[in-house]
Structure formats: C-alpha cells, structure tokens
Amino acid sequence: MGDLVFITGQMPTVPETNEMLLGTFTEQTHRVMQNLAIVLEEVGSSFEHVVQSRVFITNMGHFDEVNRVYASYFPQPLPTRTCIGVTGLAGGADVEVDMIAWIPPSEGNP
Predict the structure, then answer these.
(1) Which of 49, 69, 74, 88 has the fewest CB within 10 Å, making it most exposed?
(2) Which residues contact 60 (CB under 8 A, 6 or more apart)?
(3) Which residues are within 8 A (CB) of 29 and not within 5 positions of it... i.e. 6 or more apart?
(4) pTM of the predicted model as reported, rounded to 2 decimal places
C-alpha cells in the first residue's frame, strides 16, 4: 500500500557546502526543488507522488517566477499547493518548500 513521507521545509542550501544559496528567486527555487528531489529519491518517492506542498516566499511579487520553476519539476496534474507570503525565512532565504509525498511499494514488497 505504501506510506507517506512528511518533508520539512527545504531551504536553498547547497548540500556540498551546507551554505545558503542567496541568489535570485529563480535560483533559490531551483535549489530548493533539487534538495526536495534528493530527499524524495532517498525515501523511494518522486515528484510524481507528491500529494501536497506548501511554498513560502518573502515577496509575493515573485509568485509567477517561483511558480514557473516549481511547476517545471512536476508531471501534470500538479499536486495541491498553498503559497504563503512571509516577512522572512531562516538564513535570509527567500524561498522554502515543504511536502507530503506517497512512497509507493517497492518491487516485490507490497
């Protein structure tokens, strides 16, 4: 039947250095989504199995920019999503995303 994984908010942190990528909203969103892809793969899931996510951004004027990058990581239809404008995020980041995803049963393991 599979399980769910609840992924806490991912920031635009570069895994190799553990330093925050404080570039443009586009650059930060790509880094956040790449970090989420790493977590999803590690638990045996993928963007195809995301059932809900929450996107936090510090400037809603960049919503379309963030949304384009975010959507590019998913097959259609997109999972349910909430986008929340916030006054600040940890480490000076402008983008954070958390997710709930389904972990499908592995081959030979129902």
Answers:
(1) 88
(2) 83, 85
(3) 12, 65, 66, 69, 70, 95
(4) 0.93
25-42 helix and 63-71 helix, angle to the nearest 10 degrees: 30
The token pair at 25 is 């909203």
For 20-35, write each residue's pLDDT tens digit: 999 999 999 999 999 9
Confidence of residue 51 (pLDDT cuts 50, 70, 90): very high
Residue 34 corresponds to which amino acid? Answer: Q
**What pLDDT is attached to residue 106?**
77
With vertex at residue 70, the alpha carbon angle to CA 93 and CA 32, rounded to the nearest 5 degrees, is: 35
Average pLDDT value for residue range 53-67: 97
Strands annotated E in the chain: 3-10, 13-14, 19-20, 50-57, 80-85, 95-103
CB of 100 within 8 A of CB of 4?
yes
Average pLDDT (82-106) is 95
- Residue that has been written with the tokens 């239809």 in this structure: 77
Closest CA to 50 of 58, 40, 59: 40
